[in-house]
Amino acid sequence: MISVLVRNVVTEAQDVVRLVLGSADGSALPTFEAGAHIDVHLPSGLIRQYSLCRLQVDAQYYEIAVLKDPQSRGGSAEIHQLKIGDAVSISAPKNHFSLVDNKRKSLLVAGGIGVTPMLPMAQQLQKMGRPFEFHYCAKSPETAAFSSALNDASFSTNMHFHYSQVPGSGRMDVVNVLSRHTFDSELYICGPAAFIHDVLQQAKMLGWPEDRLHREFFSAPALDEAITENSAFQVKVRSSGALYDVAADESVFEVLDRNGVFVAVSCESGVCGTCQTGLIEGIPDHRDVFLTDKEKAQGKWFMPCCSRSKSPILELDL
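Below the sequence we write its predicted structure tokens.
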């Protein structure tokens, strides 16, 4: 855990604040690469993940930008209440969304607050002299965090803004954009779950290989309750052989935690990957958005915070 202080609070767009977090003692914070995020431990006890939204200029500072989500479970609302001088604890940076080290062109696609990991990606690609194209989709410039900074950036010629509520701009033509880069680019996308899902589906239909589709969700898509029903099953712990009942209304994590089996969790919705656990035997019902389709098909990993089982028993490597 790293102790930091809120050094500045800046309104970046409608309902979006940027926090400058500085080390409490003035020492250098751990370095990171574009795409990284930190766990923020809020005063209430909530833990939330936020992308680092700029590359470091000064080693003792990190920056995050947070949308006040009307569907918030409390995290974003609490972030918006923080003031200069408030103390919070954070984790060291983690990166599940890093740039691939090759010479292909990078196609960056951001939806709304999904711009936060994309901005440092663009900065890093610019520094490395690698080709990229950046498409930013939002309702309007007023709701688009960093729109002015990106419009004036050194890589502004790489920028394409798509404002759905601005005449003459409009929504991004997803098929047109993706079809121009199917065979020569890596796709990086971040934003609302439905937005990511739609773009990835179009990419797959156009022939993009899955290993060139890189995404980061801020929240999991809502499950269709009409077709998604929870059934009871049992979870087995490999190290002890213990077998525990998982009722239809509780998660694997909740059962393990109640029985003293430690599993690190953070988002509790299958987004961040913190709880990723090895799967020994059984048929998982994957409900996370962290694992790729290929990883889910391989059946080696399981997210106990949200996923369930299609078989009577699921054995985990714990």
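Helices lie at 75-79, 115-128, 147-151, 174-179, 193-205, 252-258, 293-298.
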